[in-house]
Design goal:
Strand content: 25-35%
Structural class: alpha/beta
CATH class of one domain: Alpha Beta
Number of strands: 25
Strand order of the largest sheet: 2-1-10-9-11-12-13-14-15
Helix content: 25-40%
Radius of gyration: 23 Å
CATH superfamily of one domain: ANL, N-terminal domain
CATH topology of one domain: Rossmann fold
Largest sheet: 9 strands, mixed
């Protein structure tokens, strides 16, 4: 298999002026995206980026995101795709832990970066002005890009498909996010297999309104469109009110989703034109049986519900067109074994709930480990299987069911959130003795975040003051919705907070709801 940069060059030669990317009113052809990737590769080369160097991207959805990613791929460098909402200690940690040698930061997020710039001294940065203007800065990406040639970069060493392509972030349950590194082969194979399983072709146009730092749009949309000789639409952000108008405007035939997207679309007012949009299939994760069926009935869109993780080749099961079973995450993808194990790693029979475990049957189609965290990699790899920490079951027909999370991570609006990061910031408040963050089931967001708080003796603080404290320290997707003050947290004999007990306890008369006080 060829690496991504070579595939892009070949696709440009094959498809020439055919539209590859749509963004707002901008259209970029296959030849155009390849030329822009070459320009960006030359920019990075001039800035000293070499093969396997890590470059952090803190950008909104925009064509330049893809120019950077593809340009770095042409150099054999590694894109570190950072959630643009991160700030403070979390952002500092991610840039340092990823060994990023350069940071590409959009003008929108420059304030967040400058907050920690002094603490990450020695790491260079370039600024991309999202208005398209050339900022008055010696390291203006806009200016450097405009001055860069569209010819391929020179003197590039051999790049193999098993070389690292990208680092994405995944939330731990007891610590900061882990860094997941995937190869060219892992990402491209995932895209090729999705094209095959979802029956995508060169006539398709795939729509994505999800942030490009996520593996979902990276593989399911951007790369799948590329390998299928299709087109991709990247929206600036998700908008329920504009969603179907965009689908019609670009004549999109498919789209990707995460858990919150489909319920939000179903919550919009119904119109006679609901079934008139050109989209006929969608793929992603987080469609329970009721949602799965309603989307099909109301919009005429077939839901190809999937399951996977950035660690496990991005996806491992799928409901194929015409063969879907509502309430399941589909059948196993070729190239992977998927099993259900008990706590002793013995396989369970159909119908029994246990942990979902996965392993590849082909080389280099899974991640190559958590970056610089061999101990974390080892924890997930007992008995030669990757242990997902998720609960599931399988039926007699080989359809898998997702049954919840064995880990304590919170799943809100498609984001896996580490309770530790929320607790760390809440606990810094001078009135807080300790806290516990956990998920509360929600029909739209999958889970909403509740924080149970124990105050220091004699201290008083309001829920609103806790929210105000968090607003300057946490990204929006980590902001708690519910606050409850407790005299003590439920704990085990070893003094570990029992979050399962808190989740089961649910909302009480003393729980404060931010939505009711906003």
């Amino acid at each position: 298999m060829e690496p991504l940069g070579t595939i892009l060059t070949d696709k440009a030669r094959e498809n020439k002026s055919k539209p590859y990317l749509y963004f707002l009113d901008k259209e970029v052809s296959y030849e155009g995206i390849n030329a822009c990737a070459n320009q960006m590769a030359n920019v990075f080369a001039e800035l000293g980026v070499v093969k396997e160097a890590h470059v952090a991207l803190i950008l909104p959805n925009c064509p330049e995101y893809l120019y950077c990613w593809f340009g770095l791929a042409k150099l054999g460098a590694v894109s570190v795709t950072i959630n643009s909402q991160f700030r403070g200690e979390s952002l500092e940690y991610l840039i340092k832990a990823s060994d990023s040698k350069l940071v590409v930061v959009a003008s929108d997020f420059l304030g967040q970066y400058e907050e920690i710039a002094a603490k990450i001294g020695g790491i260079d940065r370039v600024i991309f002005d999202t208005s398209g203007q050339v900022v008055n800065d010696s390291k203006s990406l806009n200016k450097l890009f405009d001055q860069s040639p569209t010819t391929p970069p020179a003197n590039i060493p051999l790049i193999r498909d098993i070389d690292p392509l990208i680092i994405t972030l995944t939330s731990g349950t007891t610590g900061l996010p882990k860094l997941v590194r995937n190869s060219h082969r892992a990402y491209i194979t995932a895209a090729q297999d999705l094209v095959s399983c979802a029956e995508l072709s060169a006539q398709d146009c795939i729509y994505s309104a999800l942030p490009l730092y996520h593996v979902n749009p990276q593989v399911y949309c951007v790369l799948s469109a590329l390998v299928a000789n299709a087109s991709v639409v990247v929206a600036p952000r998700f908008s329920a009110s504009k969603f179907w108008d965009d689908i019609r405007k670009y004549q999109a035939t498919a789209f990707s989703y995460v858990g919150a997207v489909l319920p939000i679309l179903l919550a919009q007012p119904q119109y006679p034109s609901d079934r008139d949009a050109p989209a006929r299939k969608c793929f992603g994760g987080g469609a329970p049986k009721e949602v799965y069926e309603k989307v099909s009935q109301r919009f005429g869109v077939e839901v190809l519900e999937m399951y996977g993780m950035s660690e496990t080749g991005t996806w491992n099961t799928i409901n194929k067109p015409g063969k879907g079973k509502a309430g399941t995450v589909g059948q196993a993808r070729d190239g992977f074994e998927v099993k259900i194990f008990d706590d002793m790693d013995d396989e369970l029979p159909p119908g029994k709930i246990g942990e979902i475990v996965i392993r590849p049957t082909k080389p280099y189609i899974m991640f190559d480990g958590y970056y610089k965290s061999p101990e974390e990699t080892l924890k997930c790899s007992a008995n030669w299987w990757f242990h997902t920490g998720d609960l599931g079951k399988v039926d007699d027909e080989g359809y898998y069911y997702f049954c919840g999370r064995k880990k304590e991570s919170i799943r809100r609006g498609g984001e896996n959130i580490s309770p530790y990061e929320i607790e760390r910031e809440v606990n810094k408040h001078p009135a807080v003795a300790e806290s516990a963050a956990f998920g509360i089931a929600d029909p739209v967001m999958e889970e909403e975040i509740e924080v149970a708080i124990v105050l220091h003796p004699g201290h008083k603080v309001t829920p609103g003051e806790i929210i105000a404290w968090c607003e300057t320290r946490l990204p929006k997707f980590m902001m708690p919705r519910y606050i409850e003050f407790m005299e003590k947290l439920p704990k085990s004999a070893s003094e570990k907070v029992q979050k399962v007990a808190l989740k089961e306890r649910g909302l009480t008369a003393n729980t404060w709801d931010r939505q009711k006080h906003s």
